[in-house]
Amino acid sequence: MVPPRRIAHLDMDAFFASVELLRYPELRGLPVVVGGGSRHQPVLQPDGTRRFSKLRDYAGRGVVTTSTYEARALGVFSAMGTMKAAALAPEAILLPTDFESYKRYSRLFKAAVAEIVPDIEDRGIDEIYLDLTDHPEETRALGMRLKEAVKAATGLTCSIGIAPNKLLAKISSDLDKPDGLTIVSLEDVPARIWPLSAKKINGIGPKAYAKLTSLGIETVGQLAQADPKLLQEHFGLNSAEWLHRVAHGHDEREVVTRSDPKGVSRETTFERDLHAKHDRDTLSEIFTRLCTRLSEDLHRKRYAGRTVGIKLRYADFRTVTRDVTLPSPTADAAMIRRAAGECLRRVPLEQRLRLLGVRVSALVPLDEAERYRAGEQGELFPG
Ligand code: TTP
Ligand code: MG
Ligand code: MG
């Protein structure tokens, strides 16, 4: 028999809100909602304290991106209309959304995990899957070490689920949030997974769940016990089989790591549209920073690339790209900046710009690129 796998799902706790609390520690313990705009930026007052916007001051059609657990206790959750949230929690603090910071912390926590388990399946800004099967360390100790590494690198807590497959790992990471570490085996499925709502299963969306409830099926356990014929009638053969399998905790999907990316890119949407001439300095600074970050990404991923490209989006949302291929692969910020600058000179710049991106592709492993350069300089010996 093949021994069971050990798959981990790691998800950051109240991610965007927790990043905000790092810079506004005075908000700890309060209901805080992320989802405002720049007009909700806290204002530093003469006495050194900050004045924050409150939800009750909000007017508009925006939605909540996330909320602290204190705000959730008042009924305020992701994707809820902010006006509706304001009715539930008028005194909650409202903060603007700052994706750049969240992306920075996202990279930080993933890099910290990669020090311990290099093969990561990236599932978006605040979550990853890991295959721990071949790792020598005992499961709970390893889980604790991952959590500590994330905390040390970011100051943030996460929750981890470890199980024989992705399906159960994902459900488990949510069982003891925040700051949880939940280990679930196949034997635990009846006791720990069956009482849960069927919508906890990744892949059962609101529509499928509504259909299930109309058939009298609400929990995973009820789904596991459901008559296969009934499910087939309503969902078709394939989906019915899948529903049956997942309800019993079975899932064969592999953890897919992106160890061989086609290209690495960075882009930024400006806070206001910029003009190539009038905002020359700002634009140039942003451009250089993008290239520096991209170079850092390449070094971290240990890649260099021969093709450097740019992407521009104009104020009217038209997008253009240009690229140039270099004589040898590079990961160097200044070389990327120079090549990207060359591309920029080949696009019309009369209109204002809303987005700028830089990309390096035709990748080779960084040490290969370094050997190549050494060879060019006559430092490499054959063999
Ligand atoms: P989640 O991991 O779903 O939520 P969370 O990290 O805020 O809270 P939890 O402790 O329950 O994991 O999403 C991660 C981030 O993605 C979240 O901080 C904000 C963003 N997000 C949205 O912008 N819109 C949404 O509808 C959801 C669910 C999340
Ligand atoms: Mg999260
Ligand atoms: Mg998440």
TrEMBL record:
Domain of life the protein comes from: Bacteria
Feature type site, description Substrate discrimination: F16
Residue span(s) of domain UmuC: 7-205
Subcellular location: Cytoplasm
Major location category of this protein: cytoplasm
InterPro entries: DNA/RNA_pol_sf, DNA_pol_Y-fam_lit_finger_sf, DNA_pol_Y-fam_little_finger, DNA_polymerase-Y, DNApol_IV, Rev_trsase/Diguanyl_cyclase, UmuC
Annotated residues for binding of Mg(2+): D11, D126
Gene Ontology cellular-component terms listed: cytosol
SUPFAM superfamilies linked to this entry: DNA/RNA polymerases (SSF56672), Lesion bypass DNA polymerase (Y-family), little finger domain (SSF100879)
Cofactor binding remark: Binds 2 magnesium ions per subunit.
Catalysis: reaction(s): DNA(n) + a 2'-deoxyribonucleoside 5'-triphosphate = DNA(n+1) + diphosphate
GO biological process: DNA repair; DNA-templated DNA replication; error-prone translesion synthesis; SOS response
Keyword Metal-binding tagged: yes
Keywords: Cytoplasm, DNA damage, DNA repair, DNA replication, DNA-binding, DNA-directed DNA polymerase, Magnesium, Metal-binding, Mutator protein, Nucleotidyltransferase, Transferase
Subunit structure: Monomer.
Protein function: Poorly processive, error-prone DNA polymerase involved in untargeted mutagenesis. Copies undamaged DNA at stalled replication forks, which arise in vivo from mismatched or misaligned primer ends. These misaligned primers can be extended by PolIV. Exhibits no 3'-5' exonuclease (proofreading) activity. May be involved in translesional synthesis, in conjunction with the beta clamp from PolIII.
The name this protein goes by in its record: DNA polymerase IV
Species whose genome carries this gene: Pseudoduganella lutea
